[in-house]
Amino acid sequence: MKCHICHKDINGKYYIDQWGHNICASHMDKKEVTMCTSCGAFTTERPIADGRCMCKDCRSTVVNTHREVAECLSYVKNQLASVGFDFGTCNINNIPIEIVSAKKIAEIRKAPISTNNKGVTFTETQMRGTSRDNMKVVGHTHKIYMLSDQPRLEFLGTLAHELLHVWQNEHDIKLPQMKCEGLCNMGSYLIYSIENTPIAQHYITNLKESPDPIYGNGFRYVFAQYEMSGWRGIINNVIKFIM
Ligand SMILES: [Zn+2]
Ligand SMILES: [Zn+2]
Ligand SMILES: [Zn+2]
């Protein structure tokens, strides 16, 4: 058996990643090799400033230009619309999207720095009326911040999550946090299930097995409803406030 890193015959102890790559244990023990934060494959790439480490394959698809962001936005919007998420008069293509560091995301969320937070959505709701007791919602403006250095599929999944925050905010839907984040994670699930590649399957497994009490439990809760009644079922339940 050959080592994936030094290409020599493996002798003695070795490690295997989830993609079936075998490497001499010494590479890992000497910290010559780590695992890609995005796909879990062994990699000799150096970590970036926030501690994430990306293999060459994942790095080669990172989304960072305006044009790529705009393409991702319209792709994700169309996929969400195709299963029944109606954004009404909200012009999704005009939502400003800014790519920022993990530190900046933490500042915006007023939370500790964590690269698990890959995006955040801000919505302003405009109310107008003739008196204090007679205020009606007249519109919403949204802004999405995306964590930098996300490979394309991860970026699409995160963007789908954030667009389902936009969808909930546009419809003034106020779910408890667990259900709210669980529904948003269904957006990521949609993107990964359409892609249907081994890496997409890896991201789906991460969603299904997340130990997080909000994001993981929330996803499992909403996913169980989806398995029973499909996209129509969960969308109707959310809109009728019976989820
Ligand atoms: Zn080796
Ligand atoms: Zn990778
Ligand atoms: Zn969220």
Sum up the structure in keywords.
243 residues; alpha+beta; 45% helix; 16% strand; elongated; binds zinc ion; SprT-like domain-containing protein
Note down, in words, how this protein is organized.
- A hairpin with a 5-residue loop joins strand 6 and strand 7.
- The strands form 3 sheets. Strands 5-7-6 form a 3-stranded mixed sheet. A two-stranded antiparallel sheet has the order 1-2.
- It folds into 2 domains: 14-59, no CATH class; 66-239, no CATH class.
- The protein is elongated and about 80 Å long.
- The protein is α+β, with helices and mostly antiparallel strands.
- The chain has helices at residues 25-29, 56-59, 66-82, 102-109, 152-170, 177-195, 198-209, 215-239; strands at residues 14-16, 22-24, 34-35, 42-43, 97-100, 119-129, 135-147.
- One zinc ion (ZN) binds next to strand 2.
- This is SprT-like domain-containing protein.
- It comes from Prevotella pectinovora.
